[in-house]
Structures are given as structure tokens and as C-alpha cells.
Amino acid sequence: MGYLEWFLLSILLTITSSVALSPPTFLAVVFGYFLGFQALPFLLFINFGAISLVYLLYKYLDFRWVDSYLNHHQKVQNLLQNIRKDELKIIFFAKLSPVLPFALTNLTFAVSGASIRHIVLGGFMGMLPRTLLAIYTGSQAREISEIINNPTGDFTAQLIVFGLVLVSVFGLIFVMKKYFKPS
Asked: What is the pTM of this model?
């Protein structure tokens, strides 16, 4: 497959990633298997295309029903307001986590009213380490079935993923704890 085909596939996967049909970290493993680190531009396109698509769809389509639903839940409203106070830090730590759902976090940040600039910048800083790790994992696989049958075979990769989860969780706790103190 040539670069044009990979680019066209990336356009399709941008759409599927934006609606939670294809997880970008898994795509990074598969792209890494076939392209190695040459996959990075395609994956950045997929990630930022999906982030932008979710943001634009939320801003320009009629999603008043989401806002109406959220307005009935004070805790959710408080969370969304708190995201706006430290949005860049929260977006960074949320995107750093390999366990938080990509499309759901994109929608949450759009609903919160976070700026697209912070969503893209925080998303880039947070997603880059896990994307590079996933590309590396894919590039090191001898067979794609090895990844499927033994997704955590590389101990170094396990440590890095565990580290990303720890930094993400503790970072989010540190940033958010000031907003959830009892009144």
C-alpha cells in the first residue's frame, strides 16, 4: 500500500475514531506494525482530525438535547465548569491516559466549552507519548497475531503504560481535588 492509500485510510479512520468505532491507540499499533515510525504523521492526522471533528459537530449541529440533559445534573455541570478553570492541564492528563475513551473525552471537552486551542495543544502533549509507545510496540511485533495473543509481552512497554496511567491519574487528582472540596 502506498502513502496515498494510507492517507485515504487515515481520512476514513478519522471519522470512525471520532464516533468511537476505532480506538486511536490500537490504530497506532497497527500502523506501527506496517509503517514503523513513518506512521506518525498519519496518526497525528487521525487524532487531531477526530478531535476537531467532534468539536465542530458539537458546536455546529443541534446538540441542545445534550445540554438540556446535562443541565438537570448539578454534579455534571460542576465538573464541566471546573474543566474550564484548568482546561489545558486536565486535557493533558486525560489524553495522557491510555484507559480513558478517546471519543468520550473529546466530547466532554467540547461540551465543557474548552477552547479548541487548549483541546488540540493538551491533546497533542498528552497523546504523543502513548502514540509513540503504540507505534513502537507495533513496529516491534514479528506478527500481528503476537500483539493480539500477547498484548503486554514487552516488560518495558508495560512499565511505560503503567507510568502513563499513574501520571495521568495522579495529575487529574491533583488538578481536580481543589474543585471537589466540601463547601
From this structure: 0.77
